[in-house]
Structure formats: structure tokens, C-alpha cells
Amino acid sequence: MFIENIKLSLKNFITNKMRTLLSLLGIMIGVSSVILITTLGNSATSNIKNEIASGGMDLIMIYGGWGNARSQKVFHSGLGEELDDMLDTIIASTPNHQVSALAKSRNKTAFFEVNCISPSYAEVFNIEMPAGRFFSDSDSIDKYPGIILGNKTAQTLFPAGGSVGKPLKLIINQCTYQFTVIGVMKKKDANMGLSFNDVILMDLNYYRSRIAKVEVVNSFFLKAADASVAAQANTDVNEYLQTKTSEKDGFWVDSPSSISEMFNKVTKTLNLVLAAIAGISLLVGGIGIMNIMLVSVTERTREIGIRKALGAQASAIRGQFLTESAVLTIIGGILGVILGTVLGKLVTELMKWSFSPVLSAYVLAIGFSAAIGVFFGLYPAVRASRLDPIQALSYE
Amino acid sequence: MDVNINPVIELENIHRDYRMGDNIVKALDGLSLTIGGGELTSIVGPSGSGKSTLMNIIGCLDRPTDGRVRLNGEDISILSDKRLSTIRNRNIGFIFQQFNLMPRLSILENVATPLLYSRVKTSERNRLATAALQKVGLGDRLKHRPTELSGGQKQRAAIARAIVTNPSLLLADEPTGALDTTTGELIMDLFRQLNSEGRTIIIVTHDPEVSQQCRRVVRVRDGKLEPEIVNVY
């Protein structure tokens, strides 16, 4: 009986192609917008997450030193090691004190940003050194005037190559210092706004003992034990720093994991808004279905009378019309899914994002369409099943 | 032909009232009628006489306001709508003036529809419907749509649909009313053939040509029976 009903419905739709299609428009638009928006949301999110995560999800950044004297004291050069010792979730740390300097090689002069860091910098950022070596804890901090160049810095200052071992002059605060290049970092993509290619690295200890005795370091980079505990580490650091200074805006802790968490929150809100839009359009679509089913019942009053005379029980008539409206909305759902997928594919292609459709949205959209067909088809179907056969048979 | 002594339908003091505003119209007013198995009966009467109401009650499409209806000995005047549907499906075959075939379905599907409601399997449905269509001479028109058939063919298909469940009673409402004389006669021939095979047939008509071909002619006027005519051939 069920299969017969489906066949009957399809036959009926084929005879009324235009009308069927128009009545499905509401459901189609509702479903396709759900598919489109979830696909775009998911593709955009995964795209941004990929960009964030490419630099490592285990990074935690602390910026501070803008607060009052008391909270400034917290940001002494040993804060990174302190956090490393105190928190289980942190396994490496480096201070980062930025100064700018005019660099002079034998035949080039240019301004560069100098990052004064500790040897653990290499561990925090997974620095690879194709030429030369990184700083080491055993370097004599007072005397060792070693310096490390970013990939692009090396190319700028030493266009002929072979920069390792070459001398380099840095002019900082109108004083000239003589250094030797001990290594060049491998080319590395910027991470969270930190660049690695156009910088010069200097040991902070050397900077503090020979150039300027800085007390407040403006930023620290920490490495979480694992990407999975990065969010926890972020919280730990925040809480630890709060015990040191109660000043609001005295510091700022940030990490790729917290940004991606924020992104998840935004996505969740977006999904709620989306659900509301989908709900409204599916409601409107459902009312359209109810309308067309009522028309269909009226048009087929005589058919209903015939069927009843032939022995159809009320439940059989009800089943026939319920099946018809459910098949109708499922067709609408399928058309909507196809439309939404095609549009989603087009837009992601244009935006050069990876195309990541949300499977659960597909299942939900089709299921919801069927449910809407049953719900909004119920009233017309019940009306059909309650028709008096004598009156229905004499209906013109 | 012999008439079975066991009655197929027994009507006992049937009343059917309709309320029209403040008035009560007595469509049937204390009518009693018994039709035996294997009879070919016609019901005649002017319009408004109550013959349609009588047909609806015999066909289990309507219930009397008062009185008893027995079909094959079972009192059906008290049954639920659901049970009446089943009785219509199993025991009564309807034939209408306007054929009432479903236009979107093929002839075979039309004829198989009553079997759908008695939950007969698809293959069996098709077999029985094909046999019924062959019996009325439409074995070569199975896949045609009703609109592709002539009036006489449509009525033959409708008769096939009425006999497909092998009911105890065929109930025809002006079966020749929409047909020309020649085609109408062919349809009457078919009815007589089915009757000679033992089927009980009631034909509601106001065409004397039709009623003359029935052994019993039941005359209805103002909701009551007038003396009936028995044609002897």
C-alpha cells in the first residue's frame, strides 16, 4: 500500500509539474540556504583554523608592561622560566624584547627589528637552522656577540650568501655594536602576526648585560606541553598572572587555541541564527505545502469518493495524502540540498576555500523536510479521510 | 434461472430522514425489501422518489435512521464506518453512470484498486484484475488510460472493477445512462451474462428499456414501495 501511495504521489506530481515545483519553492529555498550557509560557515572556519594552526596550536603569547609600576614588575626577564617551573602545562618559554636597529653589513645598510630572546626560542617555535647554529645556554653571555638572521634578513644584508661567520654592525640608540652572524633561520610562515623571516635575533642576556639593562620585557612566548592542553595552559597562565597583578589590562594572554575557541563560539552563534532562519523558511514552506494539499484534496474529492465506495477505509485515504505530502517535501528537500551544494561549491571555489560540507546538515535537512510534509499534510489528509462518500461521489 | 432462497439483502422497515432547515424530509418511509441471491433486479422511480437513498443504503454508503439492513444475514445498520468500508470492499461492487474511473491510473490499476484495499499482493492483484478485464472483453486494453477508451469500454472496465473482488452484490446506478442505445444494450447483455453466472445484480434506472430486461422491477415512490412488476420471459 505504501509503495502504491508513493507511485500515486509521483504520478500526481508529474501531471502537475509546474504547480508541484512552485509549491516546493519554500522548502527548496529553506533547505538550500541551510546547506549553503553551513557549508560556507564550515569551509570558512576550517580555512581560518588551518591558517592559525599552521604555526602550531601549542603557542601561548603574553603581552604586558603597559600597567602601573606594580604590574610592570611582573614582567621581568625571568617570567617565562617562572611560568615554565610553576605550570605543568608549559614546557618551554622565551622572553621577547623588541628593539629596532640599523644593520650594516659590508655593502648593505637597513633597518631591522631585533628580537632579544632566550635560547629556548628555538624550541618554542620549532626553529630549524639550515646554516650555522642557534644560541645555546652554554654561550658566554657577557662576551659572546653572536647574532642570528631571518631568512630574508640574510638575503638583504648578504645578497651573495654565505652570511654565517660574517661580521655585522648594529646601531642601537646611536651606539654601534659589533656582532658575528652565527646562523640563519629556515624560511618560516608568519604565525599569529609574528614574522620570522625579516628579523634579527639576539640573546636577551647579552642585550641586558651589554646594551641596555631593561627591567620590563614586553612579551613572552610559551609552548604548551601539547596542542590538546593549549587551551588549559592558556587558562593556567591567565590565572597565574592574575595572582601577581590584579590590574585590569595589566597583561594580555593569547593563543591560537583561544582564538580558535572564540571562532567556535562565533560559529555556534551563527548556527543558532541559521537555525532560526531555516525554521522560519521551512515554516513558510510548510504552510505552502498545506495549501497545495488542501487544493489537491478539493480537486480530487470525486476520486476520494470513488476510493471510499471501493472500500478504502479512512486510514487508507489519510495514508495516501500523508504519503503524498511527505514525498512532496522530501523531493523539495532533495532539490534544496542539490541547489545548496552546488551554490556552496561555487562560492568556496571563488573564495579559494576548501569545500567542507556538513554531513549532519544534510541528514537534518532531509529529515526535517519529511517531518514538515507529515506535519503540514496531516490536516488536509484528515479532511480527505473524513469526506462523506455520497457527497464526494456527487462532487463535480 | 433459479433464484437462491437465501436472501443477499434484507431491508426491514427502513426510514431515512434528512433535516432541511426546520423540516424533516422522509427520503425513505418504512420501506421493506428482500433480494435473493442470483436475482437481477431493477429499482425504478421518478427523481426524488428515494431510489438513490435506497441504493446508498443497500451499498453501505449510508445508514438508515431507523430499521434494519441485513447483508448475507449480517445486520449492517449498526456497524462502524470502518466495518462498512470492509463490507463495501468485499461484498459490494459499484457501477456508476459516469463510470468513475480514476483518470491518472491505467485500466489495470483502476480495476486492481479494490484489491489494494483488501491488501492483496501486487502480483495477485494484477492477475485478478487482468482476469476480470478479460472477462469483460478488455484483455487487450490493460495499459490504456480511461481517456483512451470509448464510453462502452469505460463502463466495461468499471464492471471489471466491480467484479474483481467477487462480491455478493453488484449495484449499478444508471449504468447505461451515459451511453448510446447500442452500447447500452451491449452493457445490458454483459449484466445478463454475469447474472446467468449466478451474480446478484441490482440496477437503479429510470429507463424502461433497462428495467424490462430485469426479472424483478421494484418501484419506489415517495420513499415507499409500489407493487412490484415481475417480468416473465
Strand percentage of chain A: 15-25%
Which consecutive residue ranges of chain A, at least 5 long each, have pLDDT under 50? none
The largest sheet of chain A is:
6 strands, mixed, barrel
Overall shape of chain A: elongated
Strand order of the largest sheet of chain A: 2-3-8-5-7-6
Task: Specify the structural class of chain A.
Answer: alpha+beta
Largest sheet of chain B: 6 strands, mixed
Biggest interface and which pair forms it? Answer: A-B, 22 and 25 residues
Shape of chain B: globular
Supply database-style keywords.
heterodimer, A: 396 residues, alpha+beta, 10 strands, B: 233 residues, Rossmann fold, 7 helices, 33% helix
If you had to describe this structure to a student in words, what would you say it looks like?
The complex is a heterodimer of chains A (396) and B (233). Chain A is α+β, with helices and mostly antiparallel strands and 396 residues long. Chain A folds into 2 domains: 2-52 and 261-393, no CATH class; 59-225, no CATH class. In chain A, 56% of the residues lie in helices and 17% in strands. Chain A has a 6-stranded mixed barrel. The longest helix of chain A has 44 residues, at 256-299. The two termini of chain A are 28 Å apart. In chain A, 41% of the residues are buried. The model of chain A has no long low-confidence stretch (mean pLDDT 87). Chain B has a single domain, classed as Rossmann fold (3-Layer(aba) Sandwich). Chain B has helices at 51-58, 81-91, 107-117, 122-135, 151-163, 181-196, 208-211, and strands spanning 7-20, 23-36, 40-44, 66-71, 74-75, 92-95, 169-173, 200-204, 216-221, 224-230. Chain B is an alpha/beta fold and 233 residues long. Chain B has 7 helices and 10 strands. The longest helix of chain B is centred in the C-terminal third of the chain and has 16 residues, at 181-196. In chain B, the strands form 2 sheets. In chain B, strands 6-7-8-3-9-10 form a 6-stranded mixed β-sheet, with helices on both faces. Classes of the chains: A alpha+beta (396), B alpha/beta (233).
